[in-house]
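[recover] target loaded
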């Protein structure tokens, strides 16, 4: 049986330790990942927010701008600027929703699909390096735990 580290991860505890605080560790890993992939994405002329939007639309499109903003964890005003920039770059197209004309939907253009394919190709080796050493069970368990952390924030 392993030691219960949860009390050490509580920022209100006198015994608080950063190495037991999951949000510090998550942020550290995500920040490091972003630094690594940002360098690679720049080689193909995109940034991380553009990559996030491409990845989201690559899974399902068209989507409302607000849905993409929520999925990408980007506030709506920033998302609108990203949409404008990506539209000018001809990576996405916008259209009113068929069910609600007040809602703007976005979808990939052929150039956007090409950029998505390039981004996936350039980030795939990084992903492979990161997950090396994780068993299938460990990887699945990590995804479940991250989902639980996210859900507990509601």
């Amino acid at each position: 049986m392993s030691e219960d580290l949860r009390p050490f991860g509580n920022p209100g505890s006198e015994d608080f330790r950063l190495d037991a605080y999951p949000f510090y560790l998550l942020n550290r890993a995500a920040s490091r990942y972003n630094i690594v992939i940002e360098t690679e994405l720049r080689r193909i002329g995109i940034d991380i927010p553009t990559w996030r939007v491409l990845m989201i639309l690559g899974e399902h499109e068209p989507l409302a701008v607000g849905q993409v903003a929520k999925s990408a964890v980007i506030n709506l005003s920033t998302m609108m600027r990203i949409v404008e920039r990506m539209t000018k770059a001809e990576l996405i197209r916008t259209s009113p929703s068929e069910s609600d004309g007040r809602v703007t939907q976005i979808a990939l253009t052929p150039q956007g699909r090409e950029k998505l394919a390039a981004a996936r190709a350039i980030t795939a080796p990084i992903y492979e390096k990161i997950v090396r050493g994780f068993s299938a069970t460990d990887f699945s368990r990590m995804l479940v735990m991250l989902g639980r952390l996210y859900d507990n924030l509601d």
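[recover] notes: Residues 42 and 48 are 9 Å apart (CA to CA).
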